[in-house]
């Protein structure tokens, strides 16, 4: 195992410990059954907003050069949200504002925040962004969840 791989493994162990310490009714995580830790599932249950008390699952894929490159986020649960569409997730922390010191726990908390308070600027889902702008987003989410 190379020095880089050893450091990556050490960092991943630290990240998993931090996630375990942050576990709550709002944040849970699942590790893959095959033992390969390149993919982690986050189950997030926001405390506010239209997804409050409704679990939303995300997949966090760690590229081989993580933490030097950002993790890749995917939404497993289908949601009506301007920053999430067709599994894609727009979160600046994992794009333009990525810093290799960013923890997976911080990413989970950022996802909880955008689930409760979306940003309609530069959306992945323009229809959801328009609903946020005109104040109908929460009602729209609730109607879609009850269908």
TrEMBL record:
Gene3D superfamilies: Ubiquitin Conjugating Enzyme
InterPro entries: UBC (IPR000608), UBQ-conjugating_enzyme/RWD (IPR016135)
A Pfam family matched in the record: UQ_con
Source species: Giardia muris
Protein name: Ubiquitin-conjugating enzyme E2
Coiled coil: none
UBC core domain span: 7-147
PROSITE patterns, per the entry: UBC_2
Cross-referenced SMART domains: UBCc (SM00212)
């Amino acid at each position: 195992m190379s020095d880089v791989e050893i450091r990556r493994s050490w960092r991943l162990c630290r990240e998993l410990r931090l996630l375990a310490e942050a576990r709550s009714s709002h944040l849970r995580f699942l590790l893959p059954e095959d033992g390969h830790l390149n993919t982690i599932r986050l189950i997030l249950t926001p405390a506010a907003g239209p997804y409050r008390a409704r679990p939303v699952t995300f997949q966090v894929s760690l590229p081989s050069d993580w933490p030097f490159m950002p993790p890749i986020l995917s939404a497993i649960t289908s949601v009506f949200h301007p920053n999430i569409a067709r599994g894609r997730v727009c979160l600046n922390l994992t794009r333009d504002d990525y810093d290799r010191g960013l923890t997976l726990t911080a990413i989970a908390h950022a996802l909880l925040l955008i689930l409760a308070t979306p940003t309609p600027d530069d959306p992945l889902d323009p229809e959801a962004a328009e609903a946020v702008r005109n104040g109908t987003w929460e009602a729209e989410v609730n109607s879609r969840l009850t269908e």
